Amino acid sequence: MEETRKKNRGKKRSRRMQRHRTSVLAVSAVIILLLAVVSVNSVTLKAQESEYETQIAELESQIDEEKSRSKQIDKLEEYVGTDEYIEDVAKDKLGLIHENEIIFRAQ
């Protein structure tokens, strides 16, 4: 009788060990799968980050260009308000001159 009990205990242990191994393998497989997914997403995010950094650099250079263009426009606006600009436009577009100026034309 005692031998039967020992055999039954041995079978139960064997079954438990088998279940334990299966559980450990299943958990290990899930962890490995999660690791693979996280790694792939990490690589994708790094590539996307690189693209964004390039885009940021381009936008910053455009901002600098627009700032310099804005300064040029401000200077032009100041120049347009002066008498010198009015005289230049009168000479170029209307052909007007001052009373004491002499015009030389090529023949």
Account of the protein in words:
This is Septum formation initiator family protein. The chain is mostly helical and 107 residues long. It has one domain. 85% of the residues lie in helices and 0% in strands. It contains two helices and no strands. It has helices at 2-80, 83-94. The longest helix is centred in the middle third of the chain and has 79 residues, at 2-80. It is rod-shaped. It starts with a helix and ends in a 13-residue tail after the last helix. The model has no long low-confidence stretch (mean pLDDT 87).
Short descriptors:
single chain; mainly alpha; 85% helix; 0% strand; rod-shaped; Septum formation initiator family protein
Please provide the ordered H/E string of secondary-structure elements: HH
Mean pLDDT: 87
Q: CA-to-CA gap between the ends?
A: 137 Å
Radius of gyration: 43 Å
Secondary structure: number of strands: 0
- Share of residues in strands: under 5%
Q: Extract low-pLDDT stretches.
A: none
What count of domains describes the coordinates?
1
Globular, elongated, flat, extended or rod-shaped: what is the shape? Answer: rod-shaped
Counting DSSP H or I runs of 4 or more residues, the number of helices is: 2
Report helical residue fraction: over 70%
Q: Sheet with the most strands? A: none
Helix/strand/pairing class, anyone?
mainly alpha
What is the topological layout?
Layout: H1 2-80, H2 83-94
InterPro entries: FtsL/DivIC
Pfam family, one: DivIC
Protein name: Septum formation initiator family protein
